[in-house]
Amino acid sequence: MKKSRNTRQRGVILGILTAGAVHLTAEEVCLEARKILPSISLGTVYRNLNFLREQGLAREIRSSDAGCTRFEATRDPHAHFHCRRCHIVRDIPLPEAVAGIRWPEAGPIASVSSLDLHVMGDCPGCADT
Ligand SMILES: [Zn+2]
Ligand SMILES: [Zn+2]
User: Fold this and answer.
1) What confidence score (pLDDT) does residue 3 get?
2) Could you say which of 22, 30, 44, 107 is the most buried, measured as most Cβ atoms within 10 Å of its Cβ?
């Protein structure tokens, strides 16, 4: 009984992360989830986000800059651009150099399972003002 409720909550939360708008804070996920599950608490949302992360289905994006953690569904490897003024987060392709990643003494790394690259700066909108 309890299990099926948890499964449903997880399904709703994963659905929110995979539907269009990515990089949501737990609070934003909670607001969306309440449209479907009106009584869901922020604590439950956090627990489910952590569960999805442990299962490899979601990814946590931390930036030193904006001071908040965002979540996205796990997809192809990509980097993130963070605007230091408006705090928007955008997916950007990984620089090509990352493909040949190596450390000097040991040669190429055998395999890369995950990679976290954050680029900070001003987005085009903020650069104009
Ligand atoms: Zn900006
Ligand atoms: Zn992303």
Assistant:
1) 63
2) 30
pTM of the model: 0.77
129 C-alpha to ligand 1 centroid (Å): 10
What pLDDT was estimated at residue 78? 86
List residues bridging with 79 in a β-sheet: 92
The mean pLDDT of the chain is 85
Q: Regarding the domain delimited by 2-123, which CATH topology (the fold level of the hierarchy) does it fall under? A: Arc Repressor Mutant, subunit A (1.10.10)
By C-alpha distance, which of 119, 123, 124 is closest to 64?
119
CA of 86 to the centre of ligand 1 (A): 4
Tokens representing 16 are 């929110």
* Ligand 2 centroid, distance to 88 Cα (angstroms): 12
